[in-house]
Every structure is written in structure tokens, then in C-alpha cells.
């Protein structure tokens, strides 16, 4: 083939690729989550004058992923014309739920698994694997408290038993069950709550029947450091961590072969009152803007905040822009 | 640059951050680029919150301590209970204090302010009392001789002469409050501590150093301002016998003897 | 108003139940709290504080006595006191977590650093402020410098030194309450993990820490009184009623 013919073919393919990409980007978003009110396109959010003067407060729990999510929802609602206040860094789910019930905040991003196991005592093996089912079950429980959960995000997050890849390979460890017989010699690091959580140490002890040589509580922000410096043989990590995305050769999560560490999609949880008062745009905006939050995207956003030390608000703004929700 | 890949770039790829700051990637301690870029976003508001917490609580503590001092000046029997009560407030660790208050005042700036003020009162009150005690008899007699009434004596003679000691107390109280206010965020009160305890911050070396410099720097600046004020005013004070338990008062006495 | 008061008392009631019996965790799983847990954390808290104080005394007392007796290094001793006051506890813990490491030993070191300045400054000042005539008299009698320092100056400086020790002890106990941030589980853990221990746990933790601090303060104040030579006490009483 001559060079010019080659170039023409190249350009044709390129044009086809661009058109295909454009169609895919502007077409209907196919969610596995089956959101109830999926908007038909990811075009920019329009500011609705009805929302002017309506004040909403968005809260979040106290770790990076939550800050990013809180900012995404807050900025999206602002674009929709609401007056938005943020109260990020509330603490863990018990504090957040209380803030919701007391009216201190109007909504915050929660996980289906956390809602069910932590707030309502559902056993982890009973948490539905399907995101929409889990969200529906959560909604049933929440409605008794005057709360409501919106559609789940595409991405899901779970606690994971993390280990250095080289250790896993050396010891031949692939799944959590592989730890049987070995765990008595190992030190596990987790948050202070881990000991009492069924999706953490308590679950590993009760459901997997594992006994660990030692458990040490540590600030969650040190969860990778303790693996790096050798203090921890095992550390509780989160499957959406940026570190796993950026450094897959170094860190591994042992497979949850008995499905006992429930994973949860994010469901923005709001008080029914606040949701009603804020009008239909409230739920719609939130459910629209999360449609492109798949695992890779969330991990990348997490990486930018946790590893590159960027400001969560900046990263959230970038997501909204790149995803086309905001100019 | 591969044209094919550019056409199929995923959203995750488009969002890829600029990981080029090697200093940050290595969690270095002196990442000046990062500081320059992020300082105003991250540290300005907490610093202002911190100044607010310190300023309001010291002023409140001063006002309350003055009130107590005026009350107890003529009623000496009030001094031990006042000292005892404020002493208990002072002894209770601030962390505990914040959460003991929380059932009544909830989380937030107000709780932090109450706790910080309670802590201040003890220091300032003690120093006012000592300062008033150390006023020499001479000026007091002169005042009485001129026909001054009790309150006149207090406000025109005794307090002015007690000023150096009072300023010493304010100095110690302010510096201590700057330090304690770092814990205010545990109670939801904001301040520089928020940049330590939230998110990934406690392991982020550069961040910890910035907060250290800001917090200690603020304390030192206040210390110097008050020290200069104290030195200015010690020319008027004759060195009196310092009674009592606080090392800080000994320090003030030393400052006085140095300046004399 | 009475509603507030009742609510307040209610919270405290819950807290006491937490300490003595244990309560349902808000995580909807099992019981938390109870005397065993409280005891575990209390022991860690006290051990941590005691270790730090012991180390601090071992360093600051001799140094303070030496400098105070010689009358040298005043700037250093006083500046150390000021610096100690200006360094926030949380920042110190954070510096250790970020740069040095977590765990009991590291936190003991951090607390020791916190405890040294007040002891050093007060020892220095106390020794230096001892009435020179007593010292001269002792010298005249042929006592060695060391004997003078230990048998004349130290007892007379004891009240001042004890003040410094008390200040240090309270600071150490207060900072030990945030040691869970560095993986050392003291009483502060009840306060810092509300998800696990609930509101009752948080208040219980606060009560326990406060009581510990007050108890130690009372004991040390008593010790200070016991160590104050009778003559100094009388002198002080005379001055206070002036």
C-alpha cells in the first residue's frame, strides 16, 4: 500500500472511531445498577430557577472517597441552581445518620452494605449481591426511620484483606480461606472499629473462623504504610483504593472466596422531608451525576486525592467537567 | 501519540491526574511546589478559624477572670474556691472537656469556645490575683490619703500596677490556647487541627510540617507580642514576693528582675 | 431548660452503664464497654503516662538541678518551658505518626518530650531561687557542691519542682488520651471511636479521662504538700494572708 493510501485508511478508521466514541458518549448510559430515573444523556446540568433559594446541606463521612463523592454531589446540585452547603467529614455512619435524622444535613453518600450490616444488623451473607436489590432492601429499612436512599452508583466498594503481592506469592495465598492455619502467625492491622465490625475482623473471626496472631488498630490512613514498613502482614484495605489502581504489582487483596465481606454500591441517603422539600431535581441531579462513576473512575479519583494529594473539590470539579455534567 | 487510543480514551484515562510531583509521590517532607499550589485552599480557612477560636476564648476568659478578681478582691474568702474551681477545669484534659460538654452544647465551635475559655480562666485569674496582691503598700496608702474610695483605688491604682502580671497571664494563656485549639476539630470546631485529623492527612509529611509551622509560629508570634508588652510595662512594677504554686509566676518574676 | 438538664443526666447515666456493664454497640453487633475493657485501656493509659514521666524525670531533674545550681543556662531552661507550651499535643503525635512511627515505644518517646519542659524549667527556677544565704552558709560549713544541691537546694525547691511535675503529668495524661491516633489503645479510644462505642462510650471515655487526671492531680498535690518543708509552708501562709 502506498503511504498516502495508508494515511487515508488511517484517517477513515480514526473518523469511525471518533464517531463511535461520540455515539457511545452521548447515547443512553447503560447502567448495571438499573437506576430508576436514569437520565437519557450526560449533557450538562441545567440550572433550574425553581431551585433558587432552596438550601440543601450535603454531608459525608470522613475519608477521601467520601469527600470526593460529597463534593461531586454538592457541586452538581449547585449547577442545578440549589444553594448548597457542605458538612463533609462528619465521622462514621452512626454520626452521619444522626446528623441526617437531626436535620444537620439533608443527604450523604452511604454504602448499601454499610447501611444493611452496620445500621440495621443484617448478616453479611444476607446482603444481596445485586446492587439494586441491596438498595431496595436498604430503602425498606431506612423508610422506617424517615429516610430514603437514591439509586446506587455503578461502582461498588468492599473491605479487603490486603497483603503485599510478594508475600502473597511467597506464601501461596490467594484467597482469605488460604489463611487458615497460617493466620495465627500473622499480624492484622485495621481501624479501631474493625474489631467490632462484621465486615471486618469480627466477620473474619466468626464467619471464616480465622484467628490472628495479633490485631492492631491503626488510623485508616496508615493502611498501606503498615504494609510497606513491615509492621503489618495483613491490612484491611478498600477495593476502590487509588493505591490498588496505581500499584497493582505491590499490593494484592485476597479473594473473598466465601463472599463474607459484603460489598456495597453508594446510595445517597437523604431524609424524606428534605428530599420532598427540595423538589424533583434533587434526586434527579444526584442520580444523573453518578452515572459515570465506575470502578476505574472512582479509583482514579481516589488516587488523585490520596496519592497526588489534590483537593477533593478540585478533583470532583474535574470529574463533573470531563464527564460532561458541568461546563 | 497513538491516534487509535486517543479516540477510545476512557473517562478514567481522561481524569488521570498529574502524578509528576515526585516529591509528593514519595511522601517527602518539603514539597514546596505542592505547598505553593495548595496553601490557600487548605490552610487559610483553618488558620483563620484557629485565630478566631484563640481570640474569642482569651477575651472571654479575660473578662470572666476580671469579674471574678473584682469579686474576690474584697472578699478574700472567695479566692480559694475560685482557684479550686478553675483549677479543676484546667486539670480536665481538653479532649475530655469537649465531649463532657457535648450532651449540652453539641458539636461545633461553641463547645470548643466554652472549653478553651474555661481553660484560660484559671491562668488569667491566678495572675490577676497575684498581680493585685503584689501592689506595694505605698501607692495604696497614697491613694487612700487622697481620699479615693475602694473602687477608685482598685481601678486607678491597683489594677494599673498589676498590669505587668496580668499581661504575663494573658501571654501564657494565649500561647497555651493556641496549642489546645488544635484539638478543637475533634469536637467539630475547626482550626488547624482539622488538617491533621481528616482524610489522609496524618501520614502526609509535608502537610504535617506545614501545620506544625503554622501552629507553633502562631504561638511564638503571640508569645513575642505579649513579651514585648510585658517588658514595656515592667518598668513600672517593683519586684514583689511571688507566693504560690505556678512556675509561670516565677518566670514572670524572673522577667521582672531581668528587666529591672 | 429542664429538658436539657434531664438529657444531660440521661447521657451521663448511659455512660455509667457503659463503664460498669457494657452496652449494645451502635454497629448492631454485640456488646462493647464494660469493666474489663475499661480496665485494659486504663492500664495502657497509666503505663504509657508513667513510662513517659519516669523518662522525663530522669532527664529533666538532674539537668535542672545542675543548671540551677550553677546558675547557668537560664535562657535555655526558660526557653524550653516556653517552647513546651507552644507545641500542641496533637501536632507532636502527628509528627511522630508521620515521621517516626506508631506504637507504644514511639508514643512514650513523644510524651516524654512533652513532659520534659515544665519539669526542667521549674527545677531550674526552683533551685536557682533558693535563698542564697542558706547556700552560702552551707558552703561556709564545708559542704560539697553536690551535697548542697541535693540536701539544701533540692528540698527547698521541692514545691516549685512538684508544680512542674504536676503540670507535666496532666499534660501527659491528656495527650495519652489521643494516643489511639498512633495505635496505642488508651482510654481515649472510647472517645475517638464513636462508631463502635456509641455516644455513651464517648462520654464514658471523657469521664474516665477526666477522673484519671483529677485523681493524679490530687495525689501529686498531696505529695507536694508532704514534700514542702514546714518552714516554707509557714512563710507562704504568712504571705498569702497579706
Descriptive account of the structure:
The complex is a heterotrimer of chains A (327), B (260) and C (242). With 327 residues, chain A is of the alpha/beta class. Chain A has 13 helices and ten strands. The relative contact order of chain A is 0.18. Chain B has a single domain, classed as MetI-like fold. Chain B is elongated and about 95 Å long. With 242 residues, chain C is mainly α. Helix content of chain C is 81%, strand content 2%. Chain C is built from ten helices and two strands, in the order αββααααααααα. Chain C is elongated. The model of chain C has no long low-confidence stretch (mean pLDDT 86). The interface between B and C is large, with 50 and 57 residues.
Short description, anyone?
In chain A, 41% of the residues lie in helices and 17% in strands.
Keywords:
B: 260 residues, mainly alpha, 0% strand, C: 242 residues, MetI-like fold, 10 helices, 2 strands, elongated
CATH superfamily label of chain C: MetI-like
In DSSP terms, counting alpha (H) and pi (I) runs of 4 or more, how many helices of chain A? 13
- What is the gyration radius of chain A calculated from CA atoms? 22 Å
Q: Using CB atoms under 8 Å apart, which protein chain pair has the greatest interface? A: B-C, 50 and 57 residues
**What is the rounded Rg of chain C?**
22 Å
Amino acid at each position: 500500500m502506498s503511504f498516502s493510501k495508508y494515511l487515508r485508511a488511517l484517517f477513515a478508521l480514526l473518523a469511525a472511531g471518533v464517531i463511535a466514541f461520540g455515539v457511545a458518549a452521548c447515547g443512553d448510559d447503560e447502567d448495571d445498577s438499573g437506576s430508576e430515573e436514569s437520565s437519557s444523556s450526560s449533557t450538562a446540568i441545567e440550572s433550574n430557577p425553581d431551585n433558587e433559594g432552596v438550601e440543601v446541606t450535603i454531608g459525608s463521612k470522613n475519608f477521601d472517597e467520601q469527600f470526593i463523592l460529597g463534593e461531586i454531589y454538592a457541586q452538581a446540585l449547585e449547577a442545578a441552581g440549589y444553594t448548597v452547603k457542605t458538612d463533609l467529614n462528619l465521622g462514621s455512619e452512626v454520626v452521619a445518620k444522626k446528623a441526617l435524622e437531626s436535620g444537620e444535613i439533608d443527604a450523604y453518600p452511604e454504602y448499601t452494605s454499610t447501611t444493611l450490616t452496620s445500621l440495621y444488623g443484617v448478616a453479611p451473607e444476607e446482603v444481596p449481591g445485586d446492587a439494586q436489590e441491596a438498595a431496595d432492601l436498604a430503602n425498606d429499612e431506612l423508610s422506617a426511620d424517615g429516610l430514603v436512599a437514591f439509586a446506587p452508583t455503578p461502582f461498588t466498594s468492599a473491605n479487603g484483606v490486603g497483603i503485599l503481592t510478594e508475600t502473597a506469592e511467597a506464601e501461596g495465598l490467594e484467597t482469605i480461606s488460604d489463611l487458615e492455619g497460617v493466620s495465627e502467625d500473622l499480624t492484622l492491622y485495621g481501624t479501631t472499629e474493625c474489631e467490632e465490625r462484621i465486615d471486618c475482623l469480627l466477620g473474619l473471626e466468626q464467619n471464616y473462623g480465622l484467628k490472628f496472631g495479633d490485631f492492631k488498630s491503626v488510623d485508616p490512613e496508615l493502611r498501606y504504610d503498615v504494609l510497606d514498613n513491615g509492621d503489618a502482614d495483613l491490612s484491611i484495605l478498600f477495593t476502590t483504593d487509588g493505591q490498588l489502581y496505581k500499584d497493582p504489582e505491590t499490593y494484592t487483596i485476597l479473594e473473598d472466596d466465601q463472599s463474607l465481606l459484603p460489598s456495597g454500591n453508594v446510595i445517597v441517603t437523604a431524609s424524606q422531608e428534605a428530599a420532598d422539600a427540595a423538589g424533583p431535581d434533587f434526586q434527579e441531579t444526584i442520580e444523573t451525576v453518578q452515572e459515570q462513576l465506575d470502578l476505574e473512575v472512582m479509583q482514579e479519583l481516589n488516587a488523585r486525592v490520596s496519592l497526588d494529594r489534590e483537593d477533593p473539590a478540585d478533583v470532583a470539579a474535574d470529574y463533573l467537567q470531563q464527564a460532561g455534567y458541568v461546563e | 501519540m497513538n491516534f487509535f487510543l486517543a479516540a477510545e480514551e476512557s473517562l478514567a484515562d481522561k481524569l488521570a491526574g498529574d502524578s509528576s510531583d515526585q516529591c509528593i509521590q514519595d511522601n517527602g517532607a518539603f514539597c514546596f511546589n505542592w505547598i505553593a499550589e495548595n496553601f490557600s485552599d487548605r490552610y487559610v480557612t483553618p488558620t483563620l478559624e484557629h485565630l478566631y477560636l484563640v481570640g474569642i476564648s482569651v477575651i472571654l476568659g479575660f473578662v470572666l477572670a476580671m469579674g471574678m478578681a473584682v469579686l474576690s478582691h474584697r472578699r478574700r474568702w472567695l479566692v480559694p474556691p475560685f482557684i479550686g474551681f478553675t483549677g479543676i477545669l484546667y486539670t480536665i484534659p481538653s479532649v475530655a472537656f469537649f465531649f463532657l460538654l457535648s450532651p449540652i452544647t453539641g458539636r461545633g465551635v461553641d463547645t470548643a469556645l466554652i472549653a478553651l475559655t474555661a481553660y484560660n480562666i484559671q491562668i488569667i485569674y491566678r495572675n490577676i490575683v497575684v498581680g493585685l496582691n503584689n501592689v506595694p503598700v505605698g501607692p495604696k496608702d497614697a491613694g487612700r490619703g487622697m481620699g479615693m474610695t475602694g473602687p477608685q483605688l482598685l481601678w486607678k491604682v491597683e489594677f494599673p500596677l498589676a498590669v505587668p502580671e496580668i499581661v504575663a497571664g494573658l501571654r501564657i494563656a494565649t500561647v497555651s490556647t493556641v496549642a489546645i485549639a488544635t484539638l478543637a476539630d475533634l469536637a467539630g470546631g475547626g482550626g488547624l487541627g482539622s488538617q491533621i485529623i481528616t482524610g489522609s492527612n496524618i501520614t502526609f509529611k509535608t502537610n504535617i510540617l506545614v501545620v506544625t509551622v503554622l501552629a507553633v509560629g502562631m504561638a511564638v508570634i503571640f508569645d513575642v507580642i505579649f513579651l514585648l508588652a510585658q517588658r514595656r510595662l515592667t518598668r513600672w512594677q517593683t519586684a514583689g514576693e511571688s507566693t504560690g504554686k505556678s512556675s509561670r509566676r516565677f518566670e514572670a518574676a524572673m522577667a521582672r528582675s531581668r528587666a529591672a | 431548660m429542664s429538658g436539657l438538664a434531664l438529657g444531660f443526666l440521661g447521657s451521663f447515666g448511659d455512660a455509667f452503664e457503659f463503664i460498669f456493664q457494657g452496652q449494645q454497640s451502635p454497629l448492631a453487633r454485640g456488646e462493647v464497654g464494660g469493666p474489663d475493657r475499661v480496665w485494659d485501656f486504663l492500664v495502657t493509659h497509666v503505663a504509657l503516662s508513667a513510662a513517659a514521666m519516669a523518662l522525663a524525670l530522669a532527664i529533666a531533674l538532674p539537668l535542672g538541678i545542675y543548671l540551677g545550681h550553677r546558675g547557668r543556662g537560664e535562657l535555655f531552661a526558660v526557653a524550653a518551658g516556653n517552647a513546651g507550651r507552644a507545641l500542641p499535643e496533637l501536632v507532636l503525635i502527628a509528627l511522630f505518626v508521620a515521621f517516626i512511627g506508631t506504637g507504644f515505644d514511639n508514643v512514650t518517646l513523644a510524651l516524654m518530650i512533652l513532659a520534659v519542659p515544665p519539669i526542667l524549667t521549674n527545677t531550674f527556677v526552683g533551685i536557682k531561687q533558693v535563698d542564697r544565704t542558706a547556700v552560702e552558709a552551707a558552703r561556709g560549713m564545708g559542704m560539697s557542691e553536690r551535697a548542697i544541691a541535693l540536701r539544701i537546694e533540692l528540698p527547698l525547691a521541692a514545691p516549685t519542682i512538684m508544680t512542674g511535675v504536676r503540670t507535666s503529668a496532666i499534660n501527659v495524661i491528656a495527650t495519652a488520651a489521643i494516643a489511639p491516633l498512633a495505635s496505642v489503645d488508651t482510654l481515649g479510644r472510647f472517645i475517638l471511636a464513636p462508631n463502635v462505642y456509641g455516644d455513651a462510650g464517648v462520654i464514658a471515655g471523657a469521664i474516665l479521662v477526666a477522673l484519671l487526671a483529677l485523681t493524679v492531680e490530687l495525689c501529686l498535690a498531696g505529695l507536694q504538700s508532704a514534700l514542702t518543708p514546714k518552714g516554707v509552708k509557714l512563710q507562704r501562709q504568712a504571705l498569702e494572708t497579706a
